[in-house]
Amino acid sequence: MERNRIYTVIKNFPLSLLMGVGIAAVVRYWWHFVTMLEGRGKAAEFRESGHSVMWLFTLIVRAHAVALVRVGGLWKARRRTFASRKLTPVEFKALLDRHRISLRRVAEL
């Protein structure tokens, strides 16, 4: 799941938003950790299914490493996407803002 999120962001988010995605990810990971300790959210479900926190951390690091290895192909896909895009970066951000959910709430789901 995390790998797909990273790929989607690289291929579709305007450059002006890419920098903030890393910060948001760290905050989201923090909230996943907090809600896991509280026994809520997907991270807690992952733990309850018998997996360790270390395995969860490993999967997150692996997803980022694979994305880094594949960044060249992802950037090509990004160029194709942006060549035929229908929304300007401002319109894209407005769409995200309209459907925004807090990072804490994402972790709680």
Percentage of residues assigned to helices: over 70%
Mean pLDDT across the residues is 94
Silhouette: globular
Counted beta strands? 0
* Alpha-carbon distance between the two ends: 14 Å
User: What is the C-alpha radius of gyration, as a whole number of Å?
Assistant: 16 Å
Q: Please, could you describe this protein's structure?
A:
The model has no long low-confidence stretch (mean pLDDT 94). This protein has 109 residues and is mainly α. The chain has 7 helices and no strands. It has one domain. The protein has helices at 2-12, 15-37, 41-48, 53-69, 71-83, 89-98, 103-108.
Briefly say what this structure is:
This protein is mainly alpha-helical and 109 residues long.
What key phrases describe this protein's structure?
109 residues, 7 helices
Write the layout of secondary structure elements.
Layout: H1 2-12, H2 15-37, H3 41-48, H4 53-69, H5 71-83, H6 89-98, H7 103-108
Helix pairs in contact: 1-4, 1-5, 2-3
